[in-house]
Amino acid sequence: MKSSVSDQGQIATAPPVALLSSRDRLLIWASIAGVIALAWAYLLYLDRRMASEMEHETMMAAMGMTMPMPPWTAADVVFTFAMWLVMMIGMMAGPATPLILLFAGAHVGRGGRRVPWIVLVFGAGYVIVWAGFSAGAALAQSALHRAAMLSPAMAASSPRVAGAILLAAGVYQLTPFKRTCLTHCRSPLGFLMTHWRSGNRGALEMGLRHGTYCLGCCWALMGILFAVGVMNLLWVAALTLFVLLEKSGPAGLVVARIGGAGMIAFGALRILEL
Predict the structure, then answer these.
(1) Contact in structure between 261 and 196 (CB atoms under 8 Å)
(2) Cα 28 vs. chain centroid, distance in angstroms?
(3) What digits encode the pLDDT tens for the residues 61-111?
(4) CB under 8 Å, gap of 24 or more: what pairs does 197-201 form?
(5) Other CB atoms closer than 10 Å to residue 128's CB: what's the count?
Protein backbone atom coordinates (compact mmCIF):
# COMPACT_ATOMS: atom_id res chain seq x y z
CA MET A 1 0.00 0.00 0.00
CA LYS A 2 1.51 3.29 -1.10
CA SER A 3 1.80 6.24 1.21
CA SER A 4 -0.78 9.00 1.02
CA VAL A 5 -0.08 12.71 0.77
CA SER A 6 -1.25 13.15 4.36
CA ASP A 7 1.19 10.49 5.54
CA GLN A 8 4.06 12.31 3.88
CA GLY A 9 2.91 15.62 5.28
CA GLN A 10 2.91 14.26 8.81
CA ILE A 11 6.48 13.07 8.34
CA ALA A 12 7.63 16.38 6.93
CA THR A 13 5.98 18.84 9.33
CA ALA A 14 7.90 17.82 12.47
CA PRO A 15 11.42 16.61 13.18
CA PRO A 16 10.71 12.85 13.48
CA VAL A 17 13.42 12.04 16.02
CA ALA A 18 12.12 14.77 18.34
CA LEU A 19 8.80 12.90 18.55
CA LEU A 20 10.43 9.93 20.24
CA SER A 21 10.24 9.67 24.00
CA SER A 22 13.51 9.69 25.90
CA ARG A 23 12.87 6.08 26.87
CA ASP A 24 12.38 4.89 23.27
CA ARG A 25 15.36 6.88 22.03
CA LEU A 26 17.59 5.45 24.74
CA LEU A 27 16.30 1.93 24.09
CA ILE A 28 17.07 2.18 20.37
CA TRP A 29 20.54 3.60 20.92
CA ALA A 30 21.33 1.02 23.61
CA SER A 31 20.07 -1.85 21.47
CA ILE A 32 22.11 -0.83 18.44
CA ALA A 33 25.21 -0.23 20.55
CA GLY A 34 24.73 -3.62 22.22
CA VAL A 35 24.39 -5.41 18.88
CA ILE A 36 27.53 -3.73 17.55
CA ALA A 37 29.47 -4.54 20.72
CA LEU A 38 28.43 -8.20 20.60
CA ALA A 39 29.32 -8.47 16.93
CA TRP A 40 32.80 -7.03 17.45
CA ALA A 41 33.35 -9.16 20.55
CA TYR A 42 32.61 -12.25 18.45
CA LEU A 43 34.94 -11.06 15.68
CA LEU A 44 37.73 -10.49 18.19
CA TYR A 45 37.16 -14.00 19.56
CA LEU A 46 37.40 -15.46 16.04
CA ASP A 47 40.52 -13.41 15.34
CA ARG A 48 42.27 -14.78 18.44
CA ARG A 49 41.23 -18.33 17.58
CA MET A 50 42.50 -17.99 14.01
CA ALA A 51 45.80 -16.52 15.23
CA SER A 52 46.24 -19.49 17.55
CA GLU A 53 45.51 -21.97 14.76
CA MET A 54 47.92 -20.23 12.38
CA GLU A 55 50.64 -20.26 15.06
CA HIS A 56 50.09 -24.00 15.51
CA GLU A 57 50.31 -24.58 11.74
CA THR A 58 53.54 -22.55 11.58
CA MET A 59 55.08 -24.68 14.33
CA MET A 60 54.03 -27.86 12.55
CA ALA A 61 55.53 -26.60 9.28
CA ALA A 62 58.82 -25.79 11.04
CA MET A 63 58.92 -29.39 12.22
CA GLY A 64 58.31 -30.66 8.69
CA MET A 65 54.81 -31.88 9.51
CA THR A 66 52.73 -29.88 7.03
CA MET A 67 49.32 -31.25 6.12
CA PRO A 68 47.14 -30.42 3.10
CA MET A 69 44.16 -28.16 3.68
CA PRO A 70 41.05 -30.33 4.15
CA PRO A 71 38.05 -29.76 1.86
CA TRP A 72 35.21 -27.70 3.26
CA THR A 73 32.12 -29.38 4.61
CA ALA A 74 28.58 -28.00 4.76
CA ALA A 75 29.25 -27.07 8.39
CA ASP A 76 32.24 -24.96 7.29
CA VAL A 77 30.04 -23.05 4.82
CA VAL A 78 27.39 -22.44 7.51
CA PHE A 79 30.06 -21.23 9.95
CA THR A 80 31.50 -18.90 7.29
CA PHE A 81 28.02 -17.57 6.54
CA ALA A 82 27.51 -16.81 10.24
CA MET A 83 30.90 -15.09 10.38
CA TRP A 84 30.06 -12.87 7.41
CA LEU A 85 26.61 -12.04 8.78
CA VAL A 86 27.98 -11.03 12.19
CA MET A 87 30.67 -8.96 10.45
CA MET A 88 28.11 -7.19 8.24
CA ILE A 89 25.89 -6.39 11.23
CA GLY A 90 28.88 -5.02 13.14
CA MET A 91 29.89 -2.85 10.19
CA MET A 92 26.47 -1.66 8.97
CA ALA A 93 24.40 -1.17 12.13
CA GLY A 94 26.12 2.10 12.98
CA PRO A 95 25.61 3.80 9.59
CA ALA A 96 21.94 2.64 9.61
CA THR A 97 21.20 4.28 12.98
CA PRO A 98 20.06 7.71 11.67
CA LEU A 99 17.42 6.13 9.44
CA ILE A 100 16.25 3.80 12.22
CA LEU A 101 15.74 6.75 14.58
CA LEU A 102 13.94 8.77 11.89
CA PHE A 103 11.72 5.79 11.09
CA ALA A 104 10.81 5.35 14.76
CA GLY A 105 10.01 9.06 15.12
CA ALA A 106 7.90 9.09 11.95
CA HIS A 107 6.01 6.06 13.22
CA VAL A 108 5.19 7.92 16.45
CA GLY A 109 4.22 11.04 14.49
CA ARG A 110 1.60 9.04 12.62
CA GLY A 111 0.09 7.84 15.87
CA GLY A 112 1.85 4.51 15.91
CA ARG A 113 2.58 2.57 19.07
CA ARG A 114 4.82 -0.34 20.09
CA VAL A 115 7.89 1.51 18.87
CA PRO A 116 10.46 -1.16 19.90
CA TRP A 117 8.52 -3.84 18.01
CA ILE A 118 8.08 -1.86 14.78
CA VAL A 119 11.76 -0.87 14.84
CA LEU A 120 12.69 -4.54 15.23
CA VAL A 121 10.55 -5.41 12.20
CA PHE A 122 12.16 -2.60 10.19
CA GLY A 123 15.63 -3.77 11.21
CA ALA A 124 14.75 -7.33 10.21
CA GLY A 125 14.51 -6.13 6.62
CA TYR A 126 18.12 -4.96 6.80
CA VAL A 127 19.25 -8.26 8.32
CA ILE A 128 17.50 -10.27 5.59
CA VAL A 129 19.30 -8.33 2.86
CA TRP A 130 22.69 -8.69 4.54
CA ALA A 131 22.01 -12.38 5.19
CA GLY A 132 21.58 -12.82 1.44
CA PHE A 133 24.89 -11.08 0.80
CA SER A 134 26.58 -13.14 3.52
CA ALA A 135 25.35 -16.36 1.92
CA GLY A 136 26.85 -15.28 -1.41
CA ALA A 137 30.12 -14.27 0.27
CA ALA A 138 30.35 -17.63 2.07
CA LEU A 139 29.82 -19.52 -1.19
CA ALA A 140 32.44 -17.36 -2.92
CA GLN A 141 34.90 -18.01 -0.11
CA SER A 142 34.20 -21.74 -0.35
CA ALA A 143 34.89 -21.66 -4.11
CA LEU A 144 38.16 -19.77 -3.58
CA HIS A 145 39.17 -22.30 -0.92
CA ARG A 146 38.47 -25.23 -3.26
CA ALA A 147 40.55 -23.54 -5.97
CA ALA A 148 43.42 -23.04 -3.46
CA MET A 149 43.27 -19.28 -4.08
CA LEU A 150 43.05 -18.22 -0.41
CA SER A 151 45.92 -17.91 2.05
CA PRO A 152 45.60 -19.17 5.66
CA ALA A 153 44.71 -15.55 6.54
CA MET A 154 41.74 -15.83 4.12
CA ALA A 155 43.19 -13.35 1.63
CA ALA A 156 43.67 -13.89 -2.10
CA SER A 157 46.95 -15.77 -2.47
CA SER A 158 47.66 -14.23 -5.88
CA PRO A 159 48.61 -10.53 -6.01
CA ARG A 160 46.93 -10.30 -9.40
CA VAL A 161 43.64 -11.67 -8.07
CA ALA A 162 43.82 -9.29 -5.11
CA GLY A 163 44.59 -6.42 -7.48
CA ALA A 164 41.66 -7.30 -9.73
CA ILE A 165 39.31 -7.27 -6.73
CA LEU A 166 40.57 -3.84 -5.64
CA LEU A 167 40.41 -2.53 -9.20
CA ALA A 168 36.82 -3.74 -9.66
CA ALA A 169 35.76 -2.21 -6.33
CA GLY A 170 37.36 1.10 -7.28
CA VAL A 171 35.65 1.22 -10.67
CA TYR A 172 32.30 0.45 -9.04
CA GLN A 173 32.79 3.41 -6.69
CA LEU A 174 32.68 5.70 -9.73
CA THR A 175 29.56 4.26 -11.37
CA PRO A 176 26.16 6.01 -11.54
CA PHE A 177 24.55 3.03 -9.75
CA LYS A 178 26.84 3.51 -6.76
CA ARG A 179 26.01 7.23 -6.73
CA THR A 180 22.27 6.51 -6.82
CA CYS A 181 22.44 4.03 -3.94
CA LEU A 182 24.66 6.34 -1.89
CA THR A 183 22.30 9.28 -2.47
CA HIS A 184 19.41 7.24 -1.03
CA CYS A 185 21.55 6.24 1.95
CA ARG A 186 22.57 9.86 2.58
CA SER A 187 18.94 11.09 2.50
CA PRO A 188 17.09 9.03 5.13
CA LEU A 189 14.26 11.55 5.58
CA GLY A 190 13.74 11.76 1.83
CA PHE A 191 13.59 7.97 1.69
CA LEU A 192 10.86 7.87 4.36
CA MET A 193 8.82 10.58 2.63
CA THR A 194 8.85 8.77 -0.72
CA HIS A 195 8.71 5.13 0.39
CA TRP A 196 6.55 5.16 3.53
CA ARG A 197 4.45 2.06 4.15
CA SER A 198 2.15 1.45 7.10
CA GLY A 199 1.98 -1.50 9.49
CA ASN A 200 4.34 -4.35 10.21
CA ARG A 201 4.45 -5.47 6.60
CA GLY A 202 5.18 -1.92 5.51
CA ALA A 203 8.02 -1.63 8.03
CA LEU A 204 9.55 -4.85 6.73
CA GLU A 205 9.20 -3.69 3.12
CA MET A 206 10.92 -0.39 3.92
CA GLY A 207 13.72 -2.20 5.73
CA LEU A 208 14.19 -4.51 2.75
CA ARG A 209 14.15 -1.64 0.29
CA HIS A 210 16.59 0.58 2.14
CA GLY A 211 18.73 -2.45 3.00
CA THR A 212 18.95 -3.11 -0.74
CA TYR A 213 20.14 0.45 -1.35
CA CYS A 214 22.66 -0.07 1.44
CA LEU A 215 23.86 -3.29 -0.17
CA GLY A 216 24.09 -1.60 -3.56
CA CYS A 217 26.21 1.08 -1.94
CA CYS A 218 28.62 -1.19 -0.05
CA TRP A 219 28.84 -4.70 -1.51
CA ALA A 220 31.99 -3.96 -3.53
CA LEU A 221 33.67 -2.44 -0.46
CA MET A 222 32.94 -5.62 1.47
CA GLY A 223 34.46 -7.62 -1.40
CA ILE A 224 37.79 -5.89 -0.72
CA LEU A 225 38.13 -8.16 2.31
CA PHE A 226 38.87 -11.03 -0.09
CA ALA A 227 41.93 -9.05 -1.22
CA VAL A 228 43.24 -7.99 2.20
CA GLY A 229 42.01 -10.80 4.47
CA VAL A 230 38.43 -11.65 5.39
CA MET A 231 39.23 -11.54 9.10
CA ASN A 232 41.74 -8.68 8.98
CA LEU A 233 40.07 -6.61 11.70
CA LEU A 234 42.14 -3.51 10.97
CA TRP A 235 40.73 -3.48 7.45
CA VAL A 236 37.24 -4.30 8.75
CA ALA A 237 37.47 -1.28 11.06
CA ALA A 238 38.85 0.92 8.26
CA LEU A 239 36.05 -0.08 5.88
CA THR A 240 33.48 0.56 8.63
CA LEU A 241 34.83 4.08 9.08
CA PHE A 242 34.90 4.62 5.31
CA VAL A 243 31.25 3.54 4.97
CA LEU A 244 30.29 5.86 7.85
CA LEU A 245 32.05 8.80 6.16
CA GLU A 246 30.39 7.99 2.84
CA LYS A 247 26.90 7.82 4.30
CA SER A 248 27.01 10.43 7.06
CA GLY A 249 29.96 12.72 6.37
CA PRO A 250 29.52 16.21 4.88
CA ALA A 251 31.22 15.22 1.61
CA GLY A 252 30.24 11.58 1.27
CA LEU A 253 30.07 11.53 -2.53
CA VAL A 254 33.53 13.08 -2.75
CA VAL A 255 34.87 10.57 -0.23
CA ALA A 256 33.42 7.72 -2.33
CA ARG A 257 35.11 8.97 -5.49
CA ILE A 258 38.46 9.63 -3.84
CA GLY A 259 38.32 6.19 -2.25
CA GLY A 260 37.48 4.66 -5.64
CA ALA A 261 40.47 6.34 -7.28
CA GLY A 262 42.72 5.07 -4.48
CA MET A 263 41.40 1.51 -4.87
CA ILE A 264 42.05 1.62 -8.62
CA ALA A 265 45.62 2.82 -8.07
CA PHE A 266 46.28 0.24 -5.34
CA GLY A 267 44.74 -2.53 -7.43
CA ALA A 268 46.86 -1.62 -10.46
CA LEU A 269 50.01 -1.73 -8.34
CA ARG A 270 49.10 -5.20 -7.04
CA ILE A 271 48.41 -6.48 -10.56
CA LEU A 272 51.76 -5.17 -11.79
CA GLU A 273 53.59 -6.59 -8.76
CA LEU A 274 56.30 -9.04 -9.79
Answers:
(1) no
(2) 19
(3) 555 555 556 677 888 899 999 999 999 999 999 888 888 988 888 888 777
(4) 197/1, 197/2, 197/3, 198/1, 198/3, 198/7, 198/110, 200/118, 200/121
(5) 14
Please tell me which residue, 190 or 257, carries the higher pLDDT value.
Answer: 257
Q: How many Å apart are CA 50 and CA 56, to the nearest integer?
A: 10
For 31-50, the pLDDT digits (tens) are 999 999 999 999 999 888 87
Predicted TM-score of the model (pTM) = 0.83
- For the chain, which residues make up each domain, given as ranges? 5-57+68-272
**CB contact at 8 A, 189 and 211:** no
- Read off the pLDDT of each residue in 184-201 and give the average, rounded to a whole number: 88
Look up residue 64 and give its DSSP letter: T
Give me the helices (H) in 63-149, please. Answer: 74-109, 115-146
Backbone φ, ψ for residue 150 (5° rounding): -120, 140
pLDDT score of 55 = 62
Listed in sequence order, the residues at least 6 apart from 198 whose beta carbon sits closer than 8 Å to its beta carbon are 1, 3, 7, 110
Tell me the torsion sign for CA atoms 44, 46, 49, 54: negative
The amino acid occupying position 34 is G
